[in-house]
Amino acid sequence: TEETLVLVKPDGVARGLTGAILARIEAKGYSLVDIRLVEPDRGTLERHYAEHEGKPFYEPLLEFMMSGPSVAIRLAGNRVIEGFRSLAGTTDPTTAAPGTIRGDLGRDWGLKVQQNLVHGSDSPESAARELAIWFA
Ligand code: ATP
């Protein structure tokens, strides 16, 4: 089995979609190993998003991620890294496939940063790194 870090981002929590998102994750058969409400400081987000430093959406992304609480989830299951990213859909909510979290529930607000409801680690290395940041 494998573990990944999932975040329900501030837009998901603010819109009251945490339960709907968790329902999809649980229905798929993945296991919640740990879950908590988080209000990350800038340093935590700089570590989490280090690969994006300098990109045009970097500052708006950090501001967005500090705009309200998120829910951090340690999720386990067979091929859960790939599986959750498939459940989430692609980055842009406008073009994310229907049936996915972002495709069904995500809205394009016309902002500099995609407020696309969730984050999921993209590789085993990222998952280990990110789980150490959010579940220290
Ligand atoms: P995916 O890997 O499926 O694209 P992700 O959440 O892992 O999703 P990253 O590429 O790691 O996406 O980017 C982190 C976050 O930064 C995105 O979820 C989104 O909120 C924002 N973002 C990424 N690329 C853009 C972009 N081109 N324009 C606006 N916001 C973006």
TrEMBL record:
ATP binds at residues 9, 57, 85, 91, 102, 116. It catalyses: a 2'-deoxyribonucleoside 5'-diphosphate + ATP = a 2'-deoxyribonucleoside 5'-triphosphate + ADP. Residues 1-136 form the Nucleoside diphosphate kinase-like domain. Its cofactor is Mg(2+). PROSITE patterns: NDPK, NDPK_LIKE. It comes from the Bacteria. CDD domains: NDPk_I. SMART domains: NDK. PANTHER family: NUCLEOSIDE DIPHOSPHATE KINASE. This is Nucleoside diphosphate kinase. It comes from Microbacterium gallinarum. The lineage of its organism: Bacteria, Bacillati, Actinomycetota, Actinomycetes, Micrococcales. The gene is ndk.
